[in-house]
Amino acid sequence: MPDFSKLCARLGYEFANVSLLETAMHHRSWNAENDGGESNERLEFLGDAVLGWVVADIVYTQHSDLPEGKLTDLRKSVVNANALAEVAIDLGIGEFLMLGKGEDGAGGRSKTSILSDALEAVIGAVYIDAGPQVTHEVVTALMGKRIVDAVGGLDRLDSKTRLQELAAQLGVSVHYAVEDEGPDHDKVFFATVIVGDRKLGHGEGKSKKAAEQIAAEIACDVLNSEIAS
User: Fold this and answer.
1) What integer is the mean pLDDT of 202-226?
2) Where is 9: in which H helix or E strand?
3) 159-228: what fold?
4) In the prediction, which pLDDT does 155 show?
5) DSSP string of 91-156, one letter each residue
6) Cα separation of 125 and 145, whole Å?
7) What is 5-152's CATH number, 3.30.1330.30, 3.20.20.370, 1.10.1520.10, 3.40.640.10?
8) Which residue has the higher pLDDT, 49 or 63?
9) Is 179 a known active-site residue?
């Protein structure tokens, strides 16, 4: 078993049952090549639900002035594959992942989908190990500042609409190309936005809309930068 002490220190939580954390690091590609144990997919399923609950509770409690639609936007801005992968990178989860040789060789330790799934699995593991109150504290420590930062960017969250408006000003069209991979119950979507004849943004998410929004936000930043210069 890898030495998870560094990861626990970064997470701010010491597991009573460290085998839960080990399972959270088991990508299905590793299990396909090794006997025993299980992949992190069940923990990921649990962690996804727990993370959504905690973040929803935080934004509801701390932002009583925001209507339901804005609360939803705020939650989505910090609970998406790209944002979660950034948290996973901050924690250094990639170095602890247990991957199959092929996935490891293909750069799996830095893939957004694998990192975000692993973070959700870690949250699921904390929930089983310590229960809802401690999990709430751990998630708050991980996501609190990101939620505060996201409040200031609420007007930017509907990136597809903003991109459409920018494209109209420039007299060019906007198209999205979306692909997906994975089983029906756990698909990951990859979106590319084409503005005029240029591919200006790429996004990844657990829904087509989420992936398109991320791609659109990147494209908006590119266009705004070009307009400013």
Assistant:
1) 89
2) helix 5-11
3) Double Stranded RNA Binding Domain (3.30.160)
4) 61
5) HTGGGG-B--HHHHHTTGGG-HHHHHHHHHHHHHHHHHHH-HHHHHHHHHHHHHHHHHHHHTTGGG
6) 22
7) 1.10.1520.10
8) 49
9) no
**Catalytic one among 22, 48, 73, 103?**
48
Is 48 labeled as catalytic in the residue annotation?
yes
Per-residue pLDDT of 175-194, as tens digits, reads 999 999 888 888 899 999 99
Please give the Cα distance from 113 to 103 (Å, whole number). Answer: 12
The token pair that represents 188 in the structure block? 């990951």
| Residue tagged active-site, from 41, 73, 103, 120 | 120
Least confident of 14-23, 119-128, 199-208: 199-208
Task: Report CA-CA distances (Å) from 146 to 58, 149, 169, 196.
Answer: 12, 5, 32, 33
